[in-house]
Each structure stands twice: as C-alpha cells, then as structure tokens.
Amino acid sequence: MSERDQDSQFDVQAExxxxxxxxxxxxxxxxxxxxxxxxxxxxxxxxxAVIPPEKxxxxxxxxxxxxxxxxxxxxxxxxxxELDKNANGSGNYKSEPRSAGQFILYYLLFxxxxxxxxxxxxxxxAMVNHYLRGEGQLSSMTSFVKWKGGDYGDTLGLHCDTPxxxxxxxxxxxxxxVNSALCLTDYSEKDGAIAFVPGSHxxxxxxxxxxxxxxxxxxxxxxxSLIFFNGNVWHGAFPKQTDGLRLTLTTYICHQRLKTQEQxxxxxxxxxxxxxxPAFARLLGAADPMGWKTIGPQFSRFAAWAKxxxxxxxxxxxxxx
Length: 321
Ligand SMILES: O=C(O)CCC(=O)C(=O)O
Ligand SMILES: [Fe+2]
Prior knowledge:
Blueprint: H1 3-8, H2 12-19, H3 27-33, H4 37-46, E1 48-51, H5 59-77, E2 102-105, H6 113-119, H7 122-132, E3 136-146, E4 177-183, E5 194-196, E6 217-218, E7 226-230, E8 235-237, E9 246-255, H8 270-274, H9 278-283, H10 299-307, H11 314-317
Antiparallel strand pairs: 1-7, 2-3, 3-9, 4-7, 4-9, 5-6, 5-8
Helix pairs in contact: 3-7
The structure holds 2-oxoglutaric acid and fe (ii) ion.
C-alpha cells in the first residue's frame, strides 16, 4: 500500500469523534422524568437552584455521606472532629487554601464507596447532563469543612468557578463547568451559607473584588439539599456565626476538553469501573485517549466503546490496574 493510499484511509471525522464523543442520551427526557424542569429554569434565570432533599437522596444516604466525610476529616487531621463542635484547625492535614475556620478535604472519591454511589446520583447527573450533554468529567470531589469564624471577609469571597481565559470572557452557552454542593448540614446565612449574586452568570466574566457584594443572597437549605450552580455565577459564603460544623460534598464537573483538578482517567481502579455503569467510567475520563506516551494515541483501543457505548471494552479496562 502506498503512503498515499494509507492517507486516504485516515478518517479525520471518525478520529475527532473518538477524541470528543458526543452525548447520546435523552437528557431533556431525564430532567422531566425526575421533575427537575423548574430547577433547570431557576439555574437559567438566577444561576443556581436549591433542589430539596426529597428529590436528591434518602436521609440514610446523607447520613452515610456525612459519616464518611467526618471519618476522613478525623483521619487526615488527626483531630477530634465532631459535627456539633467547632474544630480547632486542620491539624496534620496541610491542604490549601489555609484560612481561619475552614479547610477543604480533597480527592474523596476513593475514600468510601458512598462517594462512588453519589457520583451515580440520578438527580445530580440529570442536572449536569442538561448542561454538559454527556461530555462532562469529574474535576474534583471535595468537602468544605467550616466552623465559627470561617469568613471570606467583606467581599464574601465572590468568584466564579469557570476557569478564566486570557480574554476574560467566559463562554455563555458552552458551560465549561458546573458545580454542586450537597448540604450535609443545614444552610442559613448565620450558618455561613453559600452566597450567590442572582443573575451574575449572564455577565460571563469574573467579578472585580467587592463588585455587587451588596446583592449577594444567602441560600437557605436543609441538610440533604443539592445546591446546583452554573460555573459562571458569582458566589462565595457568609461568615459562620453559629457553633458546630458546616459540611458539604462538592462535586465539580468540567467539560471533557478541559483539564481536571484531581487525577482520575487512568488512576481509577479497574474494579471500580467494572462495578459501575459505563456513564461512571466516562465521567472519570476512561474514554479519553489523551495523555499518551511513545506509542501514541491508540485510537483502536477506544473504537469499540464508540461503537457500543453500553459496554466498557476490555481494551480500555486493561489500562486500569
Ligand atoms: O461554600 C463555600 O465556602 C464556597 C464554595 C465554593 O466556592 C465552591 O464550591 O465552588
Ligand atoms: Fe466556587
């Protein structure tokens, strides 16, 4: 075969599809099946929505998440962390940013099976897929642990979660990132609730320090609620004035063409992929052929999955130990 013939067999479009598989499900159908249309509308209008506990998960599930987060917090800090007490600090756990009254627990997915279960939560995924059309990947799964004195100062720490491009202009329709906070304790202004500037996502840019801080509203939400937000909306948090912890499980999802905050892709154990649906593997970047070494992209490994999206092929599973 001449070099020219080989070239003519190179199907640019097919390879592009492998690099960026397009969503194939009925995402609008899932939103209406779960009765989430009103929350989708709220996110479109104000940039965030509070989805009530009964639409998210049973109280027993929330209790399992809370206990797992508290266990990890104790293990990593070496401190006696208790829900109804203020913490002393993050002890042995030197994660950043380091600020008074708060620390963030990173990389929770591998810490307890309950976090895997959460990543399969239908309500959270329906909201994510409404924006990212099956092209989202887990960027990070973390917990904000906050107690009295946790305070971002006069600006309330307002920011947006979409990475800032050099132009400063954030994409309006593509939605590079979406985020959600599963409340593991009650949220109110006094309890240091997350603060949002309603409608600010429409500005498609990051706030200047202190800008529109007077318009920020506190989210009132009982434990078990899911606060879902557009990555462009300006948000921060009110100072925590009450005793005891404010806890979240925060699931930050980005479009698959962006870099993730935490390492997943080939770092996910094979058994974890095998015991979960294929959508779980895709969300963790298992279908992403990027990051190759000397052999190059190995498109053929991924081709079988593109043909049969319901089965993670052995050619991919064998990349995971
Ligand atoms: O609850 C907070 O302190 C802020 C949370 C936040 O900025 C986030 O989850 O992106
Ligand atoms: Fe944020």
